[in-house]
Design brief:
- The radius of gyration is 23 Å and the shape is rod-shaped.
- It has a four-stranded antiparallel sheet with strand order 2-1-4-3.
- β3 and β4 form a beta hairpin.
- By secondary structure, it is an alpha+beta fold.
- It contains four helices and four strands.
């Protein structure tokens, strides 16, 4: 019996050591949470009234290059207030983008909204 217990103890120790050496795969829960953050921001922006003209804030910023240039600072500040402080973001339109450059190799959450003037894509990732 002591030999069996010793063999089981060795297997247990080797299993724990292998777990540390190989690591545990990342959970898909963080991907789902990032997608939820992006969707929430997109939903809020898609339903907000414009600052000047247009059906919504997003329709306004996609209206033309001039309106995008005029509104991009306000859009960046608004998205920064919507999202938690531990997130970075990038909002992409046909006329440009606001936010940060996404570093390579990071998991992101993505949401796309179609407006009368084109698509707006919001990408979020952990800082």
């Amino acid at each position: 019996m002591p030999a069996v217990e010793g063999a089981l103890a060795v297997l247990l120790v080797l299993g724990v050591a292998a777990g540390f050496a190989l690591g545990v795969g990342e959970s898909d829960a963080s991907d789902a949470q990032l997608d939820a953050y992006a969707e929430d921001a997109a939903t809020i922006l898609a339903n907000e009234p414009p600052r000047h003209r247009g059906g919504t804030r997003l329709a306004e910023v996609t209206g033309s290059e001039a309106t995008f240039d005029r509104e991009k600072g306000a859009l960046e500040r608004r998205v920064g207030r919507i999202l938690p402080a531990n997130l970075m973001f990038r909002v992409e339109t046909t006329h440009g983008w606001v936010g940060q450059r996404k570093p390579g190799g990071v998991r992101t959450g993505v949401a796309t909204v179609t407006t009368v003037n084109g698509e707006v894509t919001i990408r979020v990732w952990y800082a």
